[in-house]
Amino acid sequence: MPTRRLILKTGLATIAMPAVLRAQGLSGQITLQSYSGIFQDNYTKAVIEPFIAANPGVKVNFVPGGTSAQMVGTIRAQKADPQIDVSIMDVTTSSIGNLEGLFEKLTPAEFPVLDELLPEARKAGGEFGPAVTFDHLVLVYDAALTPPLAKLADLWRPDLKGQIALSAPPNIQGLALTAMVEKMEGGDYRKSIDAAMKKLRELAPSVNTFEPNPDGYSLILNGVVKVATGWNARSQLYGDQSNGKIRTLLPPEGSVFQINTINLSAGSKNRAAAAAFVRHALSQPAQKAFTERMFYAPTNAKAQIDAKAVARTAAAPESRSTMIPLDWNDILKVRDQWNNRWRREVIAAAR
Amino acid sequence: MSATRRLRLLLVPAGLFVLAIYAWPTLLLLRNAFNEVGPTGALVAAWSLKTAADTFADGFTFELTWNSIWLSLVATAIALALAYPLSLFLFRTTSRWRGVLAVIAILPMLISGVVRVFGWLAILGDRGLVNGLLQWLGLISAPLKLVFNWTGVTIGLAESIMPYMILALLAGFGQLDRTLEEASRSLGASPFRTFLRVTLPLSLPAIVLAAGLGFVLSMSAYITPKLLGGGRVFVLATEIFEQATTNTNWPAAAVLALYTLVLLLVLLAFSNLLARRLRR
Q: How near does any CA of chain A get to the CA of B107, in Å?
């Protein structure tokens, strides 16, 4: 029969248990949702495995989430019972999650690493999850193309007719390209995209597909097209993996940053481990390891990155100087309008 | 318990299953259709008709409707033209290979839609089988544009619905009475005239059944227009997916999904009515 002393001891032990466990280190499992394919492979090697080595009690499940919009959709559907603890996704969709209360606000008191981040990385997420990688839109082309691609305006070359793969809006590559073409034509996307629409309409007959599947890099490698729009990090890596069969061009006319933020789900079932993972992902070693492995530009200003790797990222000084200051929150407000104009003015001209 | 009641009990398992996987999600879809999205895409819980009003005020919705109906009609017509003689042959043949031939005819159903579409890309692409052959024969100097447009989608869709239509035709050929055809021939009608005046009218209910099925499958097809359309082919199914998974606009996706559902129900009812009249 339990004595009063035994009940008291059991009660005290129960109350003290979380503190005891914390002292012993993190445990349990967390689920990270992000992009599949080469992102998953490289992120696992560069960031997740070192985290597990430092926290052997924690298991990290990587769930490939499809596109960023699909990821936020998954978290939205799980709002009452979150199964995802941490998500890495594009800022245009994480901002939707922030507004819907799907993600937690992060404070420097709990996440001191926030103070090491670049100001634009903090600004990207506001009070919520900050930027964890920077990337930018590039032109990817077949290394055998002669003459090689030198500028954005080369897309209108007659020899490229039928050899171009563009991702049209609402894909963010199409939105970024619109701003880039508008700037190339001397305009400003914040005022109008009329000049971009006119120029893109001229390009439409040269476009093989407005929806490259599985992606533009694969279409070039398989000989379907010679030029595609793409993201710098992936095209650098595909270039290496294909022994230089595809090349990457940062258009001298300017490009646009793409930002991935890291987000802590509200109501995470293993919040302590999830928060620890967020701290780790933003830390100098993790940022260095991932940048040097996959050429995403770091968001931690103190990360000491190998100069050769930096030169291949959006963080290179020559890359930064050509970037068009684009606020993705502004773009979200005009996305539908741009999308409709592409359908009616650009894609219609390609039928 | 009466025999009829006992018979109705057989419907219970399937009824419960349909309720769980179809009726409940449809109700959720209906609820979602009343929600709204904010200016930056955030979902706003509401009981409002704004999303529906915006969707139907947009002329693009009707362009999508027309595109879907036209594509489905053309794909169904092509599939029917190919499936009908094949099914008639399978129905009539006494060959011991009949079973094997029937399996071959419906074999595409056993292969994933995505794999089939990538197969079409290999066949119809600029450097694919068809263009390669035509160029080798000297019939064309530059590749024909057979994919990433309406042509590719129509061909791919017709192929994907054909096996279902073959099955529907075979099931519907029950009314084809060989003795009537023999009577027509014995009265001096040519084989062609017998086909036109006897075989074809008798198989009309099967044709309507198969065409209805093919049309519905085409209207709801997503993979083929998405992968073979090259971003140039806009139909209701691709737009629903786009709204849900790229724009995160679930209310707009829900409105379009319910609209498509109603459209299909009306078309199915019409098809059933027609089939019933033809059977009389």
A: 25
Question: How is residue A215 written in tokens?
Answer: 């992606």
pLDDT (average), residues B217-234: 95
Is residue B28 included in any domain, yes or no? no
Among A211, A222, A331, the residue to mutate for chain B (most B Cβ within 10 A): A211
DSSP assignments along B34-82, one per residue:
T-EE-TTS-EE----SHHHHHHHHSHHHHHHHHHHHHHHHHHHHHHHHH
The total number of structural domains in chain B stands at 1
A58, with CB counted inside 10 A (0-12, 13-18, 19+), is buried
- Domain interval for residue A66: 19-134+259-305
* Judgement on whether residues A183 and A288 belong to the same structural domain of the protein: no
CATH number of the domain that residue A23 is part of: 3.40.190.10
**How far apart are the C-alpha atoms of A214 and A210, rounded to whole Å?**
12
The closest alpha carbon to A130, from A231, A274, A279, A268, belongs to A279
pTM metric for this prediction:
0.86
Q: Is a pLDDT exceeding 80 seen at residue A22?
A: no
Side-chain half-sphere exposure of A216, counting CA atoms within 13 A: 33
The first and second tokens of residue A95, run together, are 């901002």
| Count of Cβ atoms closer than 10 Å to residue A166 Cβ | 29
The ipTM estimated for the assembled molecules is 0.83
CB atoms within 10 A of CB A86: 24
Instruction: Please answer whether residues A37 and A281 qualify as being in contact, where contact means their C-beta atoms are separated by less than 8 angstroms.
Output: no
Mean pLDDT within B239-264: 94
Smallest CA–CA distance from B60 into chain A, residue: A340
Residue numbers of the domain that contains B259? 58-92+100-107+148-279
Q: Do residue A96 and residue B227 have CB atoms under 8 angstroms apart?
A: no
A341, A197 contact by CB (below 8 A):
yes
